[in-house]
What we know:
- The chain has eleven helices and twelve strands.
- The strands form two sheets. An eight-stranded parallel β-barrel has the order 1-4-5-8-9-10-11-12, surrounded by nine helices.
- The two termini are about 35 Å apart.
- Ligand PBG binds next to loops.
Amino acid sequence: MSYTGRYPASRPRRLRQTDWLRRLTREHRLGADDLIWAIVVHDGAEDEVPVAAMPGVSRYSVRAAAAAAKRAERLGIPAIAVFPHIDAAKKDAGGREALNPDGLVCTAVRAMKDAAPGVGVMVDVALDPFTDHGHDGLLRDGRILNDETVKVLTEQALIQVNAGADIVAPSDMMDGRVGAIRAALDANGYQDALIMSYAAKYASAFYGPYREAIGSAKALQGDKRTYQMDYGNTDEALREVAMDVAEGADMLLVKPGLAYLDIVARVKAGFGLPTYAFQVSGEYAMIKAAAANGWIDEQRIVLETLTAFKRAGADGVVTYFAPYAAELLAT
Ligand code: PBG
């Protein structure tokens, strides 16, 4: 901070007089390059099945996911993050469908990379879309098993990268999974596959609509507080990030987004790695609901919130608004 001016010689308002001047003095800018588009896929025939709690978001067929990749390419959106809605009949306690190399995720990844090879594809590493109990890990006697889960996640990540995923994003919050995944990728010749760690992920009510989107809401037994972080904590986030960095994370993610800008700022300042925020389903739904009632201006709120992530230090944002924002930014 070097500004030491005093009124009346200094008048901060002088710099806000006109649009050209505000543009010229703006510190943080949002561009399409900052966006990772979160999409949901399903293995049904219908190209788009609307998600009630997330107006404007649909579960895409594999074909529609490939079309989305092309759309991202046209809009200059660098990457897409894929989340699967798995048929309830394919779920079991072990989440075995997660390891199917011809399952929905791998099929969608292949179709997207075929359609738009220049668009990065990121996939979640976690078991919750695949388990009949809705947890991210293996469950025994009401407890989530850490090391046993890490073994399955490692296999899941390998299969995803083998299908063409560019970035694997462990969102499960098990201890030690980044290191185990890095070692397995390297041992299989995937030294260049990227890991974006959900390093600081909080147990949050903001994920509500997502669980409807992927069909795990009804399944989920209990909550995720024995593995996702307590929202009262900050130092714990930094310890989580430090461990993931030491284990080989290339990029870091903080989740949820808007209510956690302090964490984004501390993670970016503390580690200096590419750092992203996830504007999650609940944040999306709140904006959509208020806008639908005419209570807020959707366009302005979307650009303001996304720019807030940049101001806090994020290098980019995972968001369901990505194509909408990219279109706004292009006009
Ligand atoms: C689970 C996962 C969740 C989200 C992404 N991966 C939900 C959860 O942890 O229960 C949330 C995404 C969103 O709310 O938009 N592995």
